[in-house]
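Job type: complex structure
Entries:
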Amino acid sequence: MTALIEPGVGIGWRPEICGIIDRLDGLRFCEVIAESLPVRRRGVGVPDELRSLGVPVVPHGISLSLGGADGVEQHRIDHLARCADALGAPLVSEHVAFVRAGGLEAGHLLPVPRSAEALDVLVRNVRRTQECLPVPLAVENIAALFDWPDDEYSEGEFLAELVERTGVHLLLDVANVYANARNRGRDAGQELRRLPLERVAYCHVAGGSERDGAYHDTHTDPVPDGVLDLVRQWAPEGPPAMMLERDGNYPPARELFDELDAIADAAGFDRVTGGAVSSLS
Amino acid sequence: MTGLAERQAALVRALVAAGQLPEGFDRDAIGTASKALLRKRSGEVGDHLPHVRATLGDRFFALFAAWAEGRPKVSTHADAEAFTAYLESIGELPEQSRRRRLFSPRRT
């Protein structure tokens, strides 16, 4: 099977750092927050700075609520489909999570219980979304600051079952595996190996920080070595494409390039910053 | 409504609308998650209102948290409008800031 995204280094495209990203002549792919693309009379608008990169771009949804027992809203699926069309995307990604319930917005991704009932809800929502999308769907493991009391499956079993029943791909967030393991006193490497890694289309790598006694996957801090270690452990097997996610507190270009280089080195990929670094000096 | 729908709704109420902690959840962990959601919400409103964040400085989060108590999020845009009006009503912002209060929304 050809990979949906060729292994290599990518980055989450954000308007705040589009000038820096534009210098990365070796960049393999990008991801853009689907909800950040404006609705136009026909389809959605794609910023020139993103389109001109000439790399595959994956629309990444954050508000579909695939794990929501209230069901997914058609207009949100339609927006993802229009994003995929406008970008000529190889796939679309979303989360194994819910973000609203009973008419209230949580404001961020919440974990679903790893139960048979929640799995049925996810399968139903994922299938419906897949039917409406022009390209394959990948779903991402989230960082959860709490667990449901009625978890019946491990995360690996739960995701494997979801993949089996829907044929969905995975977007593996390495930093979320690290965060969940760290907050529960588990070995992150073991947790990673228990996931259905053969279905991973691409990976997220991000930084976080410790606060209120827990590690938070903030995307506003440098990538910790523990996250890069997981990538290093995976490197001998030829890992999937990896991208840096940064969502604020943007560092100077040079630091961002160092982060991208660290990911490339850990994964055994070519660095994507060669021309960009020399353009700074 | 299935059992799961009700339980998800109760959990979201506990996290963002000062609802009762549903049975079986870890109180501290839910408290930490609730704070994290409030910080994220505050950050998004701050991105929407850079001039307000600059005016309030370190006090932005505390003022936002006080205002947000009992007011669950509808959208960042609505948060930004209502929070600005609140700040004006308590004299933390001059009235004229209303005219240029909204920065174009980046995401919902």
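Summary: Chain A has one domain: 9-273. Chain A has a mean pLDDT of 96.
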